[in-house]
Amino acid sequence: MLSTGQMPRLSKVNLFTLFSLWMELFPSAEQQKKSQVKYNYLGDNENKPGLVVVKNMKIIGLHCSSTDLHAGQIALIKHGSRLKNCDLYFSRKPCSTCLKMIVNAGVNRISYWPADPEISLQNEASNPITTDDAKLDAKAVERLKSNSRARVCVLLQPLVCYMVQFVEETSTKFDFIQKIAKSQPDSNTDFYTACRQERIKEYESLFLISNEEMHKQILMTIGLENLCENPYFSNLRQNMKDLVLVLATVAASVPVFGCFGFYNSEPQRTNETDHQGLPQEIARHCMIQARLLAYRTEDHKTGVGAIIWAEEKSRSCDGTGAMYFVGCGYNAFPVGSEYADFPHMDDKQKDREIRKFRYIIHAEQNALTFRCREIKPDERSMIFVTKCPCDECVPLIKGAGIKQIYAGDVDAGKKKADISYMKFGELEGVNKFTVMEGGVNELMVSQNPMLGIGAHGTKSSNSIIIVGDMLGYT
């Protein structure tokens, strides 16, 4: 067990990278019809690349491809000229169609996951015509890259020591896992271990290329031949494997298990949209995003993540359907302050003047402060928090007009030292969805057809720069 004071943090670069991978897995609430066209430039339609739009190191957009549009095209539609000076993190290297528009918008940097690109290079045996087109597109991407001001690169940072161990330890303690474990008197957390192994196998097949020679061939085709030599190649593959391991471990902490899910414990009025929960797959997906954010915490005792999404009246062009990103945050000290300037005390025996609680900005507060979209009163909005919101945050959430809270309720109704959680249970006007075993009433969860997503494929770029602990592949 890692002792207090030694909690490792996830770097922002790796957080953005993990978010891009996770957005590729944004769930569909309805079955998408496969294209009847034998070939279109969207690729093999087996993947729907994810995209994270970052400005001033803050996330302002989370997107994934739809059946009609690539993530890069969706970003252009959603953000337009506001993409200027932004950093974009793709789960696959964007194709030339996306890249030319993104470069034209004046983005600062484009980072991508160095595996199979948007237009797949792995299907030569089944569709040589598609693979030939992918190779031609790779050449076009390279020419665009070499003639643009934007830095097209791969940014992967090695995880800090004990990060994987820390993520695994904290994941087994998450509310979802603990409640399932308590409901299984004859078992321990073996179900979590099995789920984690299943997620690791699944995500490795999605995001990694098991065959090293094939991986080298793809890297060379997309202009990353400098990474095909050791130690760069072995380091790259290890960094990729570690990040996939972290993602699988966090995802396993919010598993699909029996009837467990996020349900409204209050009587449901099914004619009111705000009382209807999201499909469980969507709720789990967003809670895992919040869990990833928690590993950026500056609180030595408890990491908390929060993310706000909202739902438009009709389905948009985004692969997220009617859902759109509003803001996110984690608990930390005020922006611009020195990390060591504030106390980290959390022992109730210590003098109250030297305790951290009066200085830490809560995850919900940061999510509201740095939101990129306004919260509209006529649209359903929801905040996902890894911990029960405290009495300091509950009035803020309600005052902001958020319609739903998804959270663990482990501290609801309790008072811990300077932090009280009494207001959460008494909150009216905001629907609360907490982890529980669903019954007949709770299982009447909204399966909103507006939340449909599409699918698709990705492309890639070149050399090597060492910047501190960062491996920058440009």
TrEMBL record:
Cofactor(s) the protein needs: Zn(2+)
MF terms in GO: cytidine deaminase activity; dCMP deaminase activity; zinc ion binding
Keyword Signal recorded: yes
Domain of life of the source: Eukaryota
Gene Ontology CC annotations of this record: cytoplasm
Keywords from the named record: Hydrolase, Metal-binding, Repeat, Signal, Zinc
N-terminal signal peptide: 1-31
Alphabetized InterPro entries for the sequence: APOBEC/CMP_deaminase_Zn-bd, CMP_dCMP_dom, Cytidine_deaminase-like, dCMP_deaminase-rel, Deoxycytidylate_deaminase_dom
Catalytic activity field: 2'-deoxycytidine + H2O + H(+) = 2'-deoxyuridine + NH4(+); cytidine + H2O + H(+) = uridine + NH4(+)
Protein name: Cytidine and dCMP deaminase domain-containing protein 1
Protein's organism: Strix occidentalis caurina (northern spotted owl)
